[in-house]
Structures are given as C-alpha cells and as structure tokens.
Structure to design on (302 residues):
C-alpha cells in the first residue's frame, strides 16, 4: 500500500495562507533588512527564508521524485534530505545571527568586499 | 396525440413481440441477428485495492510523451526558471548557513581572502551580476506570483505582458545589486 504524505487527504488551505504570508513578508523584509541591518530582522529573515526554502524543496521532491519513477523508498529518502537541509539551514543562519555578525551584515561584508566601517553599513 | 401513439408504436416491434413468446419463428429471427451469450454467474469479489501507478507499472503501460513533444513556450520557461532560481538561492542560503556552522573562521576571514584575489572592477561586477541574477529573477517573478494569488492578471495576454515586465524588472534588480 503506497503511502505518500500528499496522498493522505489534507486540507492545504490554511498552510497556503501561511506560505503566501511568508512570501509577502519576504518581499518586504529582504530590502528593509538589507537597508537597515539589525538582529531582529535577521532572525525573522532566517526563519522565513528557511520556511520558504523548505516549502519550495518539498514541492520539488513531491513533484519530481515520484514513486512511479524511483520506487517506494527513494521519495522518503529525498524528503529526509529536505528535512536535513532545512534543519541545517535554520541552525546555520541562526548561528550566523547570534555567534557571528548576522545575515544582512554578513551579506554586505561579502558583497561590498571591504573592511567593516564603524557602523557596519555599506 | 397522434405523435404520442406513433411513438409508443415505435417502441415495440412486431417481431420483438413474437420473440417474447419464444416461438420458433421469433427465436430464430433474433438468434441469428444477435447471438445471446451464455450467462454464467460468479460470486461477487470486491476489487483488490492497487495503487494506480503500481498497477500501470505491473501492466507495463508506457507513459505518454510530454516533455519530449510539447513546444517550449515563454510561460513554461519562465515558470521552470523560477523554480531553478529558487533552488540556486536555496544553495546560497545553505552555503551561508552551513558555512557558518562548519567553517573554522568567521566571515571577515573569507572576505579578506576574496579581497586578496585583487580582481578588477569589471570582473567583480560580472561576478556579482551572475550571483545576483537568480535572486533578481526569483524576487521579480515572486511578486508576479503574489499578483496571481490575488486572482488578478490570469488571462493569457496578461500572463505574457506581466512576464515581459517581470523580465525587465529582474534585469534591473540584478544590475542594481551588481553595482552596489
């Protein structure tokens, strides 16, 4: 009996609202977070980016790594990989925020390619 | 009234009426025209549940061609590019997060390493444009997706026009980010 998590009947409606809310929040938060780097935005961005990436990867796995093509076990393994990547991403980004200079300042460091000025902005 | 009667008359055929009484004449006429099969009875067994894909595989049914035959259109190309850009961005985020966890030095060290390469401004601009391209595209198309989610812009004409507008916006965002 094949059991894939999307074959169980589930109402996606509430999750859809959360996903779209995340998308809308990201559209606003990424420019503002980059303009005004601060730890609060960095934390929210870390969580929202991880969630957005998780839903995106989950959609790819569910749609492409299908039982008909890959057998019964590989789709489950693929979903496990998605969970692992998500966990590592969240842990890493939060680590970056609290043990290093943070998401947005880190981006500017790499992007501006120069030594950190006094206030941390470009 | 006449119509009605004619209709009712049409429903019964003379010969059919004869067959009802199983006279030799009636049976002979019908047995030649439509051979009645021998009816056997089996006990009812509910159909065995089998997954749709597994049954098709068991019966060795081929899959209809789809990706190999359908023409590439800008609608589908933009859509798959959106997904690809998203996957690339996930790669960026994973690299950032994973790097923060496992790499021995902090970010400034690696920035110094990149500075040490002494690349020309043109190379730096080109490299930044290449890195920023997936983000510019995914950001612009993401806004287009959100526009669709408000149930607007869903006609083919609007899909095409917003698609072209999105491409322009994506290029603009990419060039802007590369110049920073």
């Amino acid at each position: 009996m094949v059991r894939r998590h999307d074959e169980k009947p589930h109402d996606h409606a509430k999750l859809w609202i959360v996903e779209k809310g995340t998308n809308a929040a990201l559209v606003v938060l990424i420019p503002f977070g980059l303009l005004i780097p601060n730890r609060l935005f960095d934390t929210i961005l870390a969580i929202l980016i991880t969630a957005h990436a998780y839903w995106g990867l989950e959609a790819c796995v569910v749609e492409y790594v299908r039982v008909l093509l890959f057998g019964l076990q590989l789709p489950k393994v693929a979903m496990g990989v998605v969970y692992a990547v998500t966990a590592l991403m969240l842990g890493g980004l939060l680590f970056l925020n609290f043990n290093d200079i943070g998401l947005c300042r880190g981006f500017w460091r790499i992007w501006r390619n120069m030594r950190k000025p006094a206030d941390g902005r470009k | 009234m006449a119509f009605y009667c004619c209709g009712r008359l049409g429903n019964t055929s003379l010969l059919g009426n004869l067959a009802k009484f199983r006279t030799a004449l009636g049976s002979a006429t019908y047995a030649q025209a439509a051979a009645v099969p021998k009816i056997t009875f089996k006990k009812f067994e509910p159909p065995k549940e089998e997954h749709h894909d597994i049954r098709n595989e068991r019966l060795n049914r081929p899959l209809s061609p789809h990706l190999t035959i359908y023409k590439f259109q800008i609608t589908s190309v933009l859509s798959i590019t959106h997904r690809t850009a998203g996957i690339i961005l996930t790669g960026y985020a994973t690299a950032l997060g994973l790097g923060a966890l496992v790499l021995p030095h902090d970010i400034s060290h690696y920035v110094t390493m990149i500075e040490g390469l002494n690349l020309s401004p043109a190379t730096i601009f080109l490299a930044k444009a290449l890195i920023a391209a997936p983000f510019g595209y995914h950001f612009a198309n993401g806004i287009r997706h959100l526009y669709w989610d408000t149930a607007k812009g869903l006609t083919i004409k609007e899909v095409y026009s917003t698609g072209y507008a999105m491409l322009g916006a994506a290029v603009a965002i990419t060039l802007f980010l590369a110049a920073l």
